[in-house]
Specification:
Distance between the termini: 55 Å
Strand content: 15-25%
CATH topology of the largest domain: Rossmann fold
Structural class: alpha/beta
Radius of gyration: 20 Å
CATH architecture of the largest domain: 3-Layer(aba) Sandwich
Order of helices and strands: EHEEHEHHEHEEHEEEHEEHEHH
CATH class of the largest domain: Alpha Beta
Helix content: 25-40%
Strand order of the largest sheet: 3-2-1-4-5-6-11
Number of helices: 10
CATH superfamily of the largest domain: NAD(P)-binding Rossmann-like Domain
Largest sheet: 7 strands, parallel
Bound molecules: NADP nicotinamide-adenine-dinucleotide phosphate, ligand G4F
Length: about 325
């Protein structure tokens, strides 16, 4: 059988890089879409250049999306591209809507006009649950988004469901809870902490300034979560799935463990700083992944404690000062 082709939007991001590795291991032809920038630095996929194909396109531009889909004729499209940082969505709410909400419709329209048999994955988010109305959250829990980002993701989720129901397209929405790794952007809290711990350990930083330490998240490992994306597109019928660990921890818990990994007490280094507190907070997220376990056979393999250690160790290695000969 000929190798399948996957088109990944957002291949330069955390999830795009892990998903590309995962699909290459399964013999896929992997095509990644990147937007035009004046400097071509794609550090998360540097090691994959040569194994993947890179094409140019933008979620803001319908003709580039349709042209790519027509030219590549993928079997599967993973729509991971988005403005994904929640605080930025208050500063750039319109752009966030263009990328994160309408961008989904542009990709779906490309599929609809080129070949409705292409399988489509949408990167939906637990941020859609926002001010949660029940705990744990499952596929039927009503949404109550708390940021322009969350609102945009609700649109992306429902337009995916709508194209499935309106046109019979194979369109699946993965409602993924927070997932992290050493490739996580440094502005997100877990990576900000692991990077901060390493800098403090090496004397490069005195204090780590954070916002709300009491916020709780269901944190998993990105490498485990891309497997769930793929599994969703291998089912006889498209559907929506919550992907989570079912365990929740506070930002304070993450700090305590991360500092303990280097023998330090976080209370001596972490400073609460109002600049990082959000206009509206998502206080608590806990996912119920039982549908994914039952139908996809998916389980998270990485424990929270191992994730924290892995991230701290990676930043210690990256920032380690050179030893004198
Ligand atoms: P990320 O690291 O921020 O990556 C986002 C990707 O989107 C980057 O490759 C970025 O390209 C690309 N992008 C942004 N705007 C674009 C545009 N207009 N046209 C084309 N590409 C564009 O995000 P991630 O953590 O990998 O997350 C992947 C997806 O899952 C996102 O949709 C995110 O919202 C969603 N999600 C993430 C989590 C999580 O915990 N990580 C949880 C739930 C859902 P550049 O490199 O050019 O900026
Ligand atoms: O790491 P965060 O910025 O992630 P957040 O807002 O939960 O969003 C991430 O996960 C979503 C899935 O639920 C994705 F859809 C989204 O794209 C993104 O990947 O913040 C986590 C928590 C928040 O409650 C925040 O208020 O950490 C709290 N926090 C406390 N101090 C901080 C900080 N967050 C950041 N970024 N920086 C701080 O200094």
């Amino acid at each position: 059988m000929a190798a399948k082709t996957a088109l990944i939007t957002g291949i330069t991001g955390q999830d795009g890089s892990y998903l590309a590795e995962f699909l290459l291991d399964r013999g896929y032809r992997v095509v990644g879409m990147t937007r035009r920038t004046s400097t071509e630095v794609h550090e998360r996929i540097e090691h994959l250049m040569g194994a993947i194909e890179i094409v140019s396109g933008d979620l803001l531009d319908q003709s580039s999306m349709t042209g790519l889909v027509a030219e590549i004729r993928p079997d599967e499209i993973y729509n991971l591209a988005a403005q994904s940082f929640v605080p930025t969505s208050w500063h750039q709410p319109v752009l966030t809507g263009e990328f994160t909400a309408l961008g989904v419709t542009r990709v779906l329209e490309s599929v609809r006009s080129v070949d409705k048999k292409i399988r489509f994955y949408q990167a939906s988010s637990s941020e859609m649950f926002g001010k949660v109305v029940e705990t744990p959250q499952n596929e039927k829990t009503p949404f109550y988004p708390r940021s322009p980002y969350g609102v945009a993701k609700v649109y992306g989720h429902w337009i995916t469901v709508n194209y499935r129901e309106s046109y019979g397209m194979y369109a699946a929405s993965g409602i993924l809870f927070n997932h992290e790794s050493s490739r996580r952007g440094k502005e997100f809290v877990t990576r900000k902490i692991s990077d901060g711990v390493a800098r403090i350990k090496y004397g490069l930083l005195d204090k780590l300034r954070l916002g709300n330490l009491d916020a709780r998240r269901d944190w998993g490992y990105a490498g485990d979560y891309v497997r769930a994306m793929w599994l969703m597109l291998q089912q006889p019928q498209a559907d929506d799935y919550v992907i989570a660990t079912g365990r929740t921890h506070s930002v304070r818990d993450f700090c305590r463990l991360a500092f303990e990994n280097v023998g330090l007490d976080y209370r001596q280094y972490v400073v609460e700083d109002a600049r990082f507190v959000r206009p509206a907070e998502v206080d608590l997220l806990t996912g119920d992944p039982s549908k994914a376990r039952r139908i996809l056979g998916w389980e998270p393999e990485t424990r929270f404690e191992d994730l924290v250690e892995m991230m701290v160790r990676a930043d210690l290695d990256r920032l380690r000062p050179p030893t004198r000969a």
